[in-house]
Amino acid sequence: MQILLPERSQTPLSDDQYHLLQQFIAALSPEQAAWVGGYLTGQVAKDLISIPDVSSIADITILVGSQTGNSEALAEQMHRLAAGRGLKTIVKKMGDYKFQQLKAEKHLLVIVSTYGEGEPPDNARELVEHLFSKRAPSLQQMQFAVLGLGDSSYEFFCKTGVDFDHRLEELGATRIHPRVDCDVDYESSAEAWMHAVLNELSIRLETKSQATGLSIPSLTSPSAYSRTHPFPALLLENIVLNGRGSLKETHHLELSLEGSGLTYEPGDVLGVYPTNAPDVIDALLQMLHFNGTEWITLDDEDGFLYNLLFSYYEITTITRPVMQKYALLANNRKLDQLLHDKHKLNDYLHGREIIDLVADFPSDHVSPQAFVNCLRKLPPRLYSIASSLKQHPDEVHITVAAVRYQSHDRDRKGVGSTFLAERIGEDATIPVYIDRNNNFKLPADPATPIIMIGPGTGIAPFRAFVEEHEAVGASGKNWLFFGDQHFETDFLYQAEWLRYLKSGVLTRMNVAFSRDQEQKIYVQHLMAEHGKELYVWLQDGAHIYVCGDGKRMAHDVHAALLNIVAAEIGADNAEEYVANLQKARRYQRDVY
Amino acid sequence: MTYITPEELAKRAEVERIKDASNYLRGTMVKSLQDPLTGALAEDDTQLSKYHGIYQQDDRDLRDERRRQKLEPRYQFMVRIRLPGGVCSPTQWLEVDRIANTWCNHTIRLTSRQAFQLHGVVKRNLKKTVAEINAALLDTIAACGDVNRNVMCNPNPHQSRLHAEVYEYARRISEHLTPRTTAYHEIWLDEELLSSSRQDEEPIYGKHYLPRKFKIALAVPPSNDVDLFANDLGFIAIAEDNHLLGFNITVGGGLSMTHGDTETYPRLADVIGYCPKNKTLQVAEEVVKIQRDKGDRVNRKHARFKYTIEDRGVEWFKFELNRRLGWDIEPPRPFIFEHSGDRYGWVEGANDTWHYTLFIQNGRILDTEDYPMMTGLREIAKVHDGDFRLTANQNLIIGQVGSKRKPAIDALLKKYRLANSYPQTGLRLNSMACVAFPTCGLAMAESERYFPSLIDKLDVIVKQAGLENDPILIRMTGCPNGCARSVLAEIGFVGKAPGKYNLYLGGGFYGQRLNKLYRENIGEEQILSELTPIIQHYARERKPGERFGDFVIKAGYVKEVLTGKDFHSATR
Ligand code: SRM
Ligand SMILES: Cc1cc2nc3c(=O)[nH]c(=O)nc-3n(C[C@H](O)[C@H](O)[C@H](O)COP(=O)(O)OP(=O)(O)OC[C@H]3O[C@@H](n4cnc5c(N)ncnc54)[C@H](O)[C@@H]3O)c2cc1C
Ligand SMILES: Cc1cc2nc3c(=O)[nH]c(=O)nc-3n(C[C@H](O)[C@H](O)[C@H](O)COP(=O)(O)O)c2cc1C
Ligand code: SF4
Questions:
Q1: How many CB atoms lie within 10 A of CB A497?
Q2: Which residues pair with A251 in a beta bridge?
Q3: Single pTM value for the model
Q4: Nearest chain A Cα to B38, which residue?
Q5: pLDDT at residue A216 above 70?
Q6: pLDDT recorded at residue A50
Q7: Are strands A478-484 and A508-513 parallel, antiparallel or unpaired?
Q8: What is the atom index within ligand 3 of the atom nearest the CA of A72?
Q9: Tens digits of per-residue pLDDT, B277-293?
């Protein structure tokens, strides 16, 4: 078939690769072409990111970390000096630098100062942390040189420069020229260093073969891991997103998928197999007068009671079947009556757990074996994926609200959320799998505008959406609605949203903080407030996504949407309009 | 006068561009205040807000933590209330106290320039806060920015008649030099916007205002508690049996410097002449205009009036001033300064009134478990019918107490344990620390939060040496900007990095001499081990009445600093 390729210079391909591709395409049927395209994008996605936007990488990157601007000025000077010698350099501030780029840097010149008591400048901290973390990439491909700025009256003179110099070497990079540590009168020594480094570079770059194309990605076989065979994922990061003084406890977790072959798309969900909390198990054992060492035999596995209660059974949430089975053992008249009175039963279940059941309807002749036979298996918990694989190769991020509450004079905690929040040790792994969610996907056409409504943890998938938009350079407008309790403490991922708005990746954002003023304000109020524009977006073909609480938020938002449309085309038509949005998969929800 | 070409402007400091584009200090403030996605203002507006008395800050204790949490810094605002001469009424005190406890961090900060500072206002409450301050007949205009700052005037209660007259001049100078733009009223008080036809006028400043901040103080000898010589412009009251005749004029003071940059240095003002009191405003205005026209607008680090004077010389300045005045200032009249500290407790003033001076550690008014200072002062304000006076040493005077009311005030002072605020060592009573962490964006080291504990340790040494009642000026600042005038102290600390300070010695007891660097970049342990022998030496060998600052020079610990230019020269 006929496909117009961009000019060779516009592509990352070498001449030969370019011509091979032309011939190859010519030989394909449209279907084949479509398949190849799709397949490659899918497979290469994660490898690609390690070499983002290849054409934008200059031969030499000058990476600068500065507090008061000295290093920055020097970086600019070096940039000019290099240009004078016909060397293409690009100056990047450490604060704005994308870590993934490191893997692709061929020549890296670091100019950095030192602060506090031998600490990096503020805008360099994150990069330093990354470099010294277990996630730091191998930098075999890199040649580097470091210029340190400092003040010899300090104990840790130019420490940050020294750290960079050592660490880059540790990671496999080769030094072009020895580091220089500048004191407060840095001008001359800095210039000397620049000239020496540039001399070296001009020599090396002359004698370098220009053919450095893409590494052809290995076509990994689809993953061996699944719901039934979860992958033990290493926990890389566990951050509480709520600032001091918040009533909320929302965790941002980053897990490693390295070696799993697992891939996902924005909108997919991560399944997690939690374990029960030891204190909860102990309390239950006590209540039952068991000690945990009793041996239990089951069809698919045997073990000590304690171990089974730890990781095999659900021992908190009461289900009706559990209750009925227990009732048979307990033969307690009150319990039987309760089971036959729907209303009473519902009231009873609210806020109660298995331990309450055992406490309220004790039975002295229940054997451990008989008891566990009442229980159900501990189900995995699901969490909307909050990251784009294109921005975080081999990683998956989630946003978890720790469930904690008081009921019937007992402190309760959600199994999965508190397991993730507080019961995972250093370097421990978590059994996870990917749960594809094809009903919550970005539009096929990246030019389509999208509206995202995600208060609380509902924000999670939209972090993935926006990251994806940035990674693929989607041209479509996007509009994000978020809400929580307090602006100062509960604005989840605020710094990232502000950055996206600044760079234009995010078109527009509206926020509702319910408890910052007398009258409560929620996302549905914001939608109403901006109803006219929202309708215009829909008319322009926007897709609308809702994620988060399914108990109240989803309904209120749905009602708000109906009202907005009704205001434009009348109530009866509105129902149909919205129904059609759903049919056309332009109105998708991920609520829980 | 104030038109300049784009080329010219491009050469000038960034802030000059912002002023130029700001349409008389409006900028995009209104929009900034409405943006719900960030607790910050647009970058340019953070410069302009200063002219309205408002600083954008963030809680530096939380900066790193919040960065990890993917939250923006904990932005909050400091609001500075202008208070010429530091005088306010009990009603105003009660309002400031209420506002501090409603919108701010439940503290009031008395500043080293006799003003109030309120910390911790979040953006969405900022407008309310400023409006309520104005409703209390106070304002924040020009409390900061490249304009004349709060005018200082010593609240010396001993000569109330003379003080009252000098204070009146402080008020009028402040009034006369207040910016005229209506931006403030539009932005903060919703007063209807200028009809585009009418243009703002800044007859004194012009649309670019001054190259840098400008500070004025008036002193009534023998007290120099305002540290007159630290000011860009100073007026020393010359009186004859308690009747004001006129003022000696001082110019070119300023204390700030930058670590490692000897082109920047503190400088004490020169006494250049005398003017009769009826000419005071004219002199003030012309001095300001000279700085407006001649000050450096390219290099902000070199833009203070002190450099204009230092570079062109005092003689040039006198000539220029006389030329602009159209008459010649007279030679200076004799005067004597004797101290710059405060006198604590009750002192009797004129016509049967009394004044009570309270020691307020670093000017911070707050309630603690064992010291309910804020509550106590509130209760006093409720019954007090005189005034409150903020001293330039961050202390507070309950002024003009009629002898009939004195017992009532006394009772409250006792009830809230304020009465024994001053039985302390002479060292602590003469101590001052700047704000620094966690609010000050420029702090390199702790100051206000740390200084008291350092003085605890020094107190032990001082007591052992038998000096507990000897006043020694000791001051700390968290960076070399010198907000607590540390380079004028007999013992001065200037922060360099967390836990590290430069130690300066030899300042003049009544603000007449800068101190000199003695040790660089040292921590607490070394501070104590360096100072102990010097303090003991002083206790052993000082002459009667000999001041610590004079002694360390005589004893050869540091060289005397004669002019700002040799501030950085060799230590010995
Ligand atoms: C509150 C106060 C210190 C105190 O503990 O009382 C203070 C606090 C600050 N000063 Fe100051 N200065 C204060 C008196 C001074 C003094 C002392 C004086 O004026 O007698 C000086 C030295 C004298 C002088 O101006 O030379 C002083 C020299 C500075 C400077 C250096 C100016 C310069 O010439 O370079 C800065 C930084 C600047 O302006 O760029 C500064 C800046 C600041 C800021 C606003 C930091 C900033 O710009 O972001 C500080 C706010 C800290 C906070 O969180 O509250 N402050 N500042 C004083 C308020 C006075 C007032 O009511 O207006
Ligand atoms: C598709 C999907 C995506 C999801 N995405 C996310 C996400 O991105 N982030 C996230 O945090 N969660 C998400 N969830 C919810 C998550 O799966 C768990 O349900 C949640 O973490 C609670 O599980 P848990 O094991 O901690 O609590 P459990 O042990 O399952 O206990 C939860 C139960 O406790 C009871 N309960 C809770 N609070 C109270 C109270 N105040 N009073 C009385 N009873 C109470 C309720 O019966 C509730 O069902 C998602 C769910 C689905 C289905
Ligand atoms: C608060 C502070 C702390 C500093 N700490 C150190 C230090 O620990 N070690 C050092 O070598 N330099 C230190 N310095 C000196 C700076 O690194 C030096 O001024 C450098 O030129 C700043 O460059 P920049 O403007 O690019 O940030 C410190 C400077 C400041 C202001
Ligand atoms: S001296 Fe420095 S640290 Fe202290 S308040 Fe002033 S600017 Fe802040």
A1: 25
A2: A240, A400
A3: 0.83
A4: A498
A5: no
A6: 39
A7: parallel
A8: 26
A9: 999 999 999 999 999 99
